[in-house]
Amino acid sequence: MIKADPFKKTPIAELAPDVRNKCFEEVVLGYTLDEAIAESQRCLDCKQQFCVAGCPVNVDIPGFIRHIKTGDIEKAYGVLTHDNALPAICGRVCPQESQCEGKCIRAKKGESVAIGRLERFTADYIEKNINFKTDKPERPAPIGIKAAVIGSGPAGLSCAVTLAKAGADVTIFEALHKIGGVLTYGIPEFRLPKSIVAKEQEKLEAYDVKIKTNTLIGKSYTLDQLKAQGFNRFFIGSGAGLPSFLGIEGENLMGVYSANEYLTRVNLMGAFKEDAITPIKHGKRVAVIGGGNVAMDAARTAKRLGAEEVTIVYRRSMNELPARLEEVHHAEEEGILFKTLHGPIEILGEKSAVAGLKCQMMRLSEKDASGRQRPVPIDDAYITVDCDTVIIAIGQTPNPLIPMTMKALDTTPKGCIVADDDTMETSVSGVYAGGDAVTGAATVIKAMGAGKQAAENMLKTL
Ligand SMILES: Cc1cc2nc3c(=O)[nH]c(=O)nc-3n(C[C@H](O)[C@H](O)[C@H](O)COP(=O)(O)OP(=O)(O)OC[C@H]3O[C@@H](n4cnc5c(N)ncnc54)[C@H](O)[C@@H]3O)c2cc1C
Known about the structure:
The chain is of the alpha/beta class.
């Protein structure tokens, strides 16, 4: 029997940094049953549940942990999946420190309860024994909804499952050849094994959801053409896959990638393999611009592809890095260097290829609209980061294709689709939207919550 430390999270097994930075195996190995039960004992089961309020989909956190305490993991899974369709994924990638765990009472005098680790444990423990191909759930009678779900990221997946569980006839249209959105093409295997996303596909198929991959809505079909095919409800969960660039000199040099392209080539197209049909440059010295999860993923991927030196270049300080704490910690352990308070101003070239990244040093000034201190350039203070590859990870915006082919769809000046906060319905009746396509680049759980909310509102229109 393991005894939990009241002030510290029960440790979790991880691959050693110098082993994992050479392979794509999952870094965090998960709790055993004993470890999970020990950690669950740290939950104080507070009357006022701040952790629940901190969760974007209001999972009954003390409720599921209560069942882990008694070893009834099946019941814990039932409570968890009542509000969260993707617990194995959220347990791995949610920014818990700024959500549920950030609100945990334990965090006032030590470390919070490891809610994310317990969520992941519960989902893995149960889902490894479910075979959605053979254990088909009971299907309700058809309810007269024929729904087209556009995009198979977390928003589309949760919308589709919620609708299908209620008896709707659902088809997912996905532009790429695999489902999952960022879960498949963005977040690397070492953080989120693709077998977990594949399980979601099995779940969809168990609910008779039809999946049409390689289908780009706006090109293959417009929404009006889908309407003519008999679809009577629509959900747009097309994400924010359009990478932003800096607009600085040298961005067209060979060896410059958007993080989106870099990660897609590796995760989706297998560019790390010797015989890949869309190979990628294996840079020796790689500079990654940005400080979010995308930057951490790109940097850690470059290291695994054999880079000798990978440097994250970020305009603000370590305190303002928007990435999950765990990712920053893992990146540091794996030998990624951080050049903070430096803003890139030019990518230097030699014979049309990257030869360095010129940066200006910055200092922090007063807080800006985001609540973070604004970086201000320091006059005449420049350095050059020695590199042969530059990966730009400074953000993504929604792709304009769907709004371009549906003029009645209102969008914001930043290209996000406008949807009602409560119903998720857009300016076009019967067309709902959610996830990054509406909010701009955000989080998995927010996208998942939006998909579910849209589905529930579609069902109310019956
Ligand atoms: C590299 C990376 C790492 C991240 N790490 C984290 C993390 O650790 N934690 C976290 O919470 N969030 C993370 N995020 C953010 C998170 O993944 C997104 O907020 C979330 O995936 C958004 O979900 P979505 O369903 O709205 O869109 P997406 O996941 O982007 O899915 C949209 C899908 O729609 C498809 N599509 C687009 N246009 C069309 C069309 N016209 N027709 C048909 N299909 C279309 C796309 O191919 C895609 O599959 C990360 C993002 C990236 C890029």
